[in-house]
Hints:
- The protein is α+β, with helices and mostly antiparallel strands and 1196 residues long.
- Among the domains are: 44-484, Glycosyltransferase (Alpha/alpha barrel); 546-598, no CATH class; 616-762, Glucose Oxidase, domain 1, CATH 3.50.30; 821-851 and 858-937, no CATH class; 944-976 and 983-1030.
- It is built from 36 helices and 34 strands.
- The protein has a seven-stranded mixed sheet.
- Helix 2 packs parallel to helix 15 and helix 12 (341-348) packs parallel to helix 14 (391-403).
- The longest helix has 44 residues, at 1119-1162.
- The radius of gyration is 39 Å and the shape is elongated.
- Residues 1-19 form the signal peptide.
Amino acid sequence: MACDLFIWGLLMFGCSIQALLVASEDDPLEYMSKEERKALKEEARDMFCHAYNAYMDNAYPADELMPLSCKGRYRGSEPNRGDIDSTLGNFSLTLVDTLDTLVVLGDLEEFEHAVKLVVRDVSFDTDVIVSLFETNIRMLGGLLSGHILAEYLQQRADIMPWYRGELLNLAKDLGYRFLPAFNTTTGIPYGRINLKYGMKDVPLEVSRETCTACAGSMILEMAALSRLTGEPIFEEKAQKAMDVLWRMRHRGTDLMGSVLNVHSGDWVRRDSGVGAGIDSYYEYCLKAYILLGDEKYLGRFNKHYQAVMKYVSQGPMLLDVHMHRPNTNSKNFMDALLAFWPGLQVLKGDIKPAVETHEMLYQVMQRHNFIPEAFTTDFQVHWGHHPLRPEFLESTYFLYRATGDHYYLGVGRKVLKSLQTYARVPCGYAAVSDVRTNKHDDTMDSFVLSETFKYLFLLFAEPGELLLDLDEFIFTTEGHLLPLTLASIRTNISSQDFERDIVHVDEMDRTCPNSLHLFPASVRQPLRNMVEDVYPRRAIKRRLNAAQFQANNLEHLKLLSDMGITTLTLADGRVQLLHTFSNAKTPQDSEEGLLFMQEMVEISKMQSQQSDTKPQAVTFVKPNTNPPQIITLLAGPAQFGLELQGLNKVTGKVVFTFPSTACTDLHNADKLTGKIAIMGRGSCMFIEKARRIQQAGAVAGIVLDNIDGSSAATSPIFAMSGDGKEVDDVTIPVVFLFSMEASELLKAIAVANGDLTVTLGNFFSKEDAQLKAPTDLSMFERLKGSLKSFLTRQMTPQTSPSSGTNLDMVPVIRHEEDEKDIIFFYNLRAEIIKDPLGGEVRITSSYISVPLTKESKDTLIEKQWRQMKEFFVNHIYLDVKQKTSLQIRSFILESYYNWIVKSRNGDSKILKISLRDKVAWFLEELAVVVPNPSIMKMDQLMDINKQKLLKQYLLTKMDIMVLNMKTVTTMLKTIRSENPNTEQLFKIFEFNIAQANNYKFLKQLLPGIFDMEDEIISEHLALLDRVHKKYREILTDGAEENLEKSIIDKNFYYDMIIDNWQNDLKNFEKLDVLKKIKGQDSTIIDFMIDNESSKTEIKSKDFSKMSKNNDDLKMGKFEDFEYFILTEIEKAMKNSEQNNIRKYKEHIEISRNVADNINKESGNSNKVVLNVSSQNQSKTDTLKNRIKYQIEFIKN
Length: 1196
């Protein structure tokens, strides 16, 4: 027997050696000498001391050190960072969190000094709202660990004889302040607590929901507090929370969600994984069993662990799934917090998957120098931030302790070098804002001293070199030490039956495998190139970052589309971005898209963290009011410049910037000195505008919103963002007005003839002040509007309603207004409205202003252009009260831009700017002229301008015709699912005939009378041809399909309609008028005059006098040809009218025969599509009138 055992031992030893040798061939086992290990241990100690001394010398008693500013961060003294700041409570967080690290490193003298400081300075009687979870693990855990180690050292090192449990008293005080948070329906604690007043004044929106980890990571600290003080209330509350969470699991999968409602227990977020929001719950299930000895926690952990390994674990990766659909991933990225999982697996005893996941994380870390906060399944950066987290080092330490493999010492060395190279700064260690750029963040969280440097030091330290026997302690999630002897201290904790669910625990669950028989190298070897094989390292050349992005820049939107990012413009003007990896043009584009999205998330967080920033006010006396009426408009602040607080105010007269957006050099800079500058939103960053007006000498600035209809009453107040520079070089205040408030200010400026004095200051709520613009909605009206909007959304069908019951169907032109862009300049307002043909620009003005002065060259083209501008301005100011507008197609405006810019020697780069910039240029050009009564008629214009305006008119008509065809196409689609009425179909067909005829007529007319060398117009005509052809094909196919559906027994009647319709289009091409047109070399002028008198005069003209000589174009003799064109158009319309009526009469006669036959066969006249009665003649008359109406509609 002994011989057998000996032989078996030799075989096992040989197999082990063989496995070791095989692994060594591809992945040689590392061995670190004692000297190197000792040197790294001392370097880790020095790193801790560098950070600790920086905090004590420059920040204490603040909560945290700001390593770049080299000062302390107090709650409320720095700009609010949102949820991040809920960790701070002005209670010397970093020092309390670091107490036990001082003992681990053996600096007992400093530990004693630190305890005295905490006892002297720390108090919790503060009116501050903090995170219950963070305050528990950092403050309560730090106090308890400090107390335990103080008594430990009293007994074993004979130091600190003066200590009498002062830290425990502070911990007890803090524990009692936690208790109101547990007063919920379920027993799950609120996420926030006011240290002084409990749940008083804690906003409901930040407390009613909590994360699973937040509610389930209280048990270690609260149970330790109960067992050290003898007061069971703390453990009882935390235990109930754990019991309720266990009941909230998905019973079919044993998975947990990540966020739930504290009152109902309903899951708010059902993502299930092991990372953010849920991580330490699993950790505390296992560690509660280890510390307290209660097997129910072990049973629960084992159930959860099996579920995680079944559903969440995908090889070495851990991907979130839906807790109720565990085979469906809810995310395509992993977060850095899951790096704790391999360490927990070591405690569980499952070493192999721990080695695999750790190796995957190590490769990610090697690739990016740190593990980014989130990374995708292809190991690209999803969120590049790295706050010097300890979780990866924690797992490295546990794996080394379990295996003794020096490979993990090498991992620790790599982490240490990265910290020294990329995070060390003169005043401590700074978080890395983005691992791709290694830019620093002015933050050093308390866990850097509490955990990161602690685990780094322990990794290189031999157990015999430590003052403590760490086998007697367990680490909390914050790295604090709690003694295992606490299990022997019992408390009288009441437990209800439903709280103690019986979970079977196998005997094997209480034991761990012998890790000495494992060779991690053989496990790691297949994974060693896992990250690099997916994507090799490469530098990403950025074309656009989030700070540069402008939502109204077409080039930027094109770049986002290439990256796979979709933009959605919300009702309040905000832009929502959605990134889809598969939509990107290339993998490189998709990676840049991920970078862009993460940057945008960080910017969004910064903006959302400005909620505590108080709004500003713009105040002025309304002109011509007696007694004087003071108007106060609610304004948004800025993250830069002078912040107006208290009674600080800035008063001055207002002046508009020129250009209006203040994004380029200011032409009226001399007029801004000592004034408050008014500028429009858009085209560049807010802070760039502020710098320009400041340089011009302005004392303040007001930015006007470019989102139509926005208001402070309906849109959230936000702070205008800066550019992220550490030094703010803007020293003047700048505020933001939404468009409703801006319109009130503009009206007041107009009434005051531009001489208005305003005051910028802090916003105070007063009962006797008008806090909003007079046009703002009351609360009751806003509620009514919201209800109306809701009902409209709910009652509006998703598809267009069938038109089967509409017998009066006459298509109405509608532009697609899916996307609007508003541009302001001085008193002008331009609205860019998109449609399938590039859209149009509508320009209006609320008042006539004094024109801006601008030098212009006295050239022929400039004279022509000035007259054109006067003509446009006449249209804009025709009737301000009725809000008349100038409507111009976008491509025509661009044509004017190219014409003038080229004449002014503009280079090719200037010609390629965005449409929005061209519209802004157009407004600037119009702002220098006023209405000119001397050019109210066409014959008062220069000949070249007549030609341009007529060409503009004809091209616009062509666009409208194609858009009409789109409307007809839509109508055919809406009735595709039903049997259409014959009259409806006929109306659609004959309407489209008119549109197609006019389009073909004008398409062949234009090249014969105009110079079509303009590249923009040529490209647009090509676009029109493509769209026109597509719509004609759709219409033909749709018509045939619908006619097939509407027939009952006989098909010939409807076939005839289609045949006639198609013949119309073919025959129209043979019209003599087109042949006549092509022979002409002249042009037209007054086609846009559509009044009846002019049309009467047309008929009386003698066309024989029309000139055919090219010289006539130069002399401007085009009058006769104008009348010829109009007459030929009218002839074509009349011919079309007569043919359509004649055909419709024939159709009625044919349908009468069809109806008679059907009536004879079935006796049921209700089945006839076109039921002919004695009223057929009246139908014909009605049709005549409708066709006449449509002809007039098309002509006009």
